[in-house]
Design brief:
It is a single chain. The protein has 283 residues and is an alpha+beta fold. It has 3 helices and 19 strands. The protein has 2 domains: 32-132, Immunoglobulin-like, CATH 2.60.40.2030; 139-261, Immunoglobulin-like (Sandwich), CATH 2.60.40. It has helices spanning 2-31, 260-263, 275-282; strands at 33-36, 49-55, 63-70, 79-81, 85-88, 94-101, 110-115, 122-123, 128-132, 139-143, 149-150, 153-162, 175-181, 193-195, 201-204, 210-217, 228-233, 243-245, 250-255.
Amino acid sequence: MKTKIKITGSFLLMIILIIALAACSDDDSLGAKLSFSRSIYILPSNGSLEVELRASVAPKTDLSIPISIEGTAILDEDYEISANEFTIKAGETSATLTITPKNNLTANREIRLSINPVSEYTLGDKKIAIIPIEVKEHIMYTFKPNIFRLLSDIDIRIEVEGENSGNSFRATTDIVLPIEIDPSSTAILNEDFEFENGITSVTIPKGSYYTHFKIKIKEGAENYTGKNVILKLGTPVDKSELYYPGSFVSYNIKLDQLKFTDMLGKWKPVEIKDKDNYVGIFS
């Protein structure tokens, strides 16, 4: 009786060990899961976003995981995505895709990414990622005219404002605006007047909201008095859909010469300190 119990106990122990070993050998395949690192991301209006996919167990060879791309946002209109699948390298446990905003001017749009199943891996809790897209604001561009008469040279200022942020707007990238001459101008470029450094466009640098440039009478110019030049501010070529003209995108400047009346009111009386000598000179 005692021998029979001992054999039965040994047999049960052996069965338990076999099951445990089998379970251990299958842990990698049974427990391997794929998940996004987050369920919710936000794509900023400017810049880019990295979306991460994680594997609980590193693959032995490179692993490609396709994804479904859906949502109310329109691919290649509102945003771009670097690939339509993740690739986790052998021995690693994560991979990323990059999403970049484009003409994201429509509110309440989002991207929905879903992991598609692959062999030897199950899907974890975060198998879907929702990505709302922040909306870019429209930008107004304008001259800031304060002088309309060109005697020698004048400095011309250009500014931009955000549709929502107003004067607090600062350019996130360089903004290049073409400077054009209206064909109805009577003054002739490089004959009656010229732009400093021969510019054809101006740049509002990243981090700023304004720029300026000079226009001047051409050295040696003749018979320019009374002529005018009408400057026009062109729409930025890069991402032109973001911009709209302000109140002053045309600037009418009259070319003129210094007159006596320009100096009236600018003279200041001078105190005569040595009156004796003054009288002596003219007496």
